[in-house]
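Hey, sorry to bother you again with one of my protein questions. There's a protein on my desk that I can't quite get my head around. No rush at all, and the record is pasted right below.
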Amino acid sequence: MITLLVVAGIALLIALGYMNHVVENNKLEKARTKVELNDRLRRCGELTETFPGQLMTPALKLLMTRLELNVCQRLLNLDKSNAGVKARLDELAALAAQGESIPVNNPPAPIQTEAKAKDVRFLLEALHGQITRAAQDGFLPANEAKRWIREVRHLLVLLHIEFFNNLGQQALQQEQPGQARLAFERGVQYLRKQQEPQVYAEQLAYLEKLLARANAQVLASTQPVEGEVNQLTEGLKEDEANDEWKKKKVYD
């Protein structure tokens, strides 16, 4: 009997230890999930608020709203007393209910510097990550996720087109045709390397036209001006005169 009681006691201690371990693991997992969801919520908010207006569409705005709505719902399930998340959830639900009639208030943000281009590229990378994670969680169907990932890649191309165009136009305005030619040339090469360059045929033709214009200006600026007299041309004229005199002296 004593042996049975000892064995039962040991088994009870093991069971209690195991249950305590499970409870602690659940607490840690819940805390980790909350941290992760809060980080995703922050990233979704940044995307919604700072995404350039010229690249934003109602469909894309609706997608961002849905992604943030899903994160808010999961976060609220873990922390039902979070009033801030609940208020945001109600706001997002009202926006999502409008479908593609959702208002798009993001102001345009011209891509005129390399730093700005990098910032927008990081936003696109963040959007790609949110789409991928939503698909892994089962929130976005696989087909829809693939379609949006293709759209993100398309937006990345549009970003480069705007950047190279703006860079070249600025150089032309500053009377720097060499820099303009370099910018337009980079844009043309970038579009020609795309897997489906025919999709961007119109933009490619436009950049090629600008490249030809900048190249013509570079060539024009390197041609000597008619009638221009400088030390070099004067020196050449003197050398030619001396050569003629020497020839005449020899022949005489």
User: Anything to note?
Assistant: The helical segments are 2-50, 58-78, 83-96, 114-136, 142-173, 177-192, 201-222, 231-251.
